Amino acid sequence: MSGSNSSARGSASPEPLSFAVHSLPDPRQVTAQRAGRWKMLLVLALCAAPVVASYFTFYVIRPHGSAYGELISPTAEIPADLPLTDVQGRAVPAASLQGQWLLVVAQPAACGAACERQLYVQRQLREMLGKERDRVDKVWLVPGDTLPDARVLSAISQKGAEVTVLRVPSDRLAAWLRPAAGKALSDHFYVVDPLGRWMLRAPAEPEPRKLKADLDKLLRASAGWDQAGRPGGPR
User: Fold this and answer.
1) What's domain 62-221's superfamily in CATH?
2) Bridge partners for 224 per DSSP
3) What HEC string does the chain produce?
4) Which of UniProt's keywords are assigned here (predicted)?
């Protein structure tokens, strides 16, 4: 009996069961949180839509249509090691030409009447783009090592008429930009996209409004992702 009593006294008395009650989330609060997330996702989608659409149009559908100039397919990327030199004799990395649409002429240093006329048309075409003109830079690629005449350089260095003038070995230039059959490099305008890809070729003496229409199409198609300005480019 004593053992029985001792055992009873030593055993722990059972504790009462505890039922903790936790409040359930308010269904209205959960619904509001979900609605907020969906609204945020919708806003993000609306913001991204123009960019996605322009990428899709430019890189998938591509602005073929009835172009005045000749669209180059496949496009030709500017060689990363293309040796470029400015008029001061400084080396210029080919990658520095990326980030902006380029309207390119390829004329010799001995710039005659046809060359001067093309440089004038180049300037007028850019001005015709109006508020979009800051998305396009004018570039003159000079085959060989000779510098253009000081008079011409002075004319294209005036404010509002600035042209990026770069010298490049003739053979290396011809390996990237190519004229149409029976034509010379100097017989065309070359349009290069912001990724450094030559993608359109047009006559050196074009119908300006028709070539402008091509440029307008390209600029509209890239409006969602292309911003004005290129590091080191003229303004």
Assistant:
1) Glutaredoxin (3.40.30.10)
2) none
3) CHHHHHHHHHCCCCCCCCCCCCCCCCHHHHHHHHHHHHHHHHHHHHHHHHHHHHHHHHHHHCCCCCCCCEEEEEEEECCCCCCEECCCCCEECHHHHCCCEEEEEECCCCCCHHHHHHHHHHHHHHHHCHHHHHHEEEEEEEECCCCCCHHHHHHCCCCCCCCEEEEECHHHHHHHCCCCCCCCHHHEEEEECCCCEEEEEEECCCCHHHHHHHHHHHHHHCCCCCCCCCCCCCC
4) Membrane, Transmembrane, Transmembrane helix
Side-by-side strand order, sheet with 188-192: 70-77, 197-203, 188-192, 101-106, 136-143, 164-168, 84-85, 91-92
CA end-to-end span of the chain:
108
Distance from C-alpha of 56 to C-alpha of 75, rounded to nearest angstrom? 17
Q: What is the dihedral of CA 83, 144, 108, 166, to 10 degrees?
A: 30
Q: Tell me the chain's radius of gyration from C-alpha atoms.
A: 33
Token pair 């003229």: residue:
234
Write the pLDDT tens digit of every residue in 96-117: 999 999 999 999 999 999 999 9
User: Which parts of the chain have pLDDT scores under 70?
Assistant: 1-36, 41-66, 225, 227, 229-235
